[in-house]
Amino acid sequence: MIALTDAELHELMQAAQLVPLDLRDVFLERVAAKLKGKTIGAGLMHRIAHETARTISWDAELSAAVG
């Protein structure tokens, strides 16, 4: 379990909106894994959450196009 400030939670929720609904659990798991052992701040949360969201969304789009 990760404790988040309101600002960190806001960043996470903003990034989650970029991810298809059926992949949001994967998104949260990946973000949590990337944050493990780090000192979390709004900037770090923004970077990791948006990077992860873009990667998952890109992979989903690519898979659908090839699929």
What does this entry look like structurally?
With 67 residues, the chain is mostly helical. It has a domain at 24-67. 72% of the residues lie in helices and 0% in strands. The chain is built from three helices and no strands. The chain has helices at residues 6-16, 24-35, 42-66. The chain is elongated, with a radius of gyration of 12 Å. The model has no long low-confidence stretch (mean pLDDT 90).
SSE layout and pairing:
Layout: H1 6-16, H2 24-35, H3 42-66
Helix pairs in contact: 1-3, 2-3
Calculate Rg over CA atoms. 12 Å
Give the fraction of residues assigned to helices. over 70%
Instruction: State the end-to-end CA separation.
Output: 35 Å
Instruction: Report the count of strand segments.
Output: 0
Order of helices and strands, N to C? HHH
Q: Indicate the proportion of strand residues.
A: under 5%
How large is the count of helical segments?
3
Q: Segments where pLDDT lies below 50 for 5+ residues?
A: none
How much is the average pLDDT?
A: 90
Oligomer: single chain
Major sheet characteristics:
none
Q: How does the helix and strand content classify structurally?
A: mainly alpha
Q: What is the molecular shape?
A: elongated
Keywords:
67 residues; mainly alpha; 3 helices; 72% helix; elongated
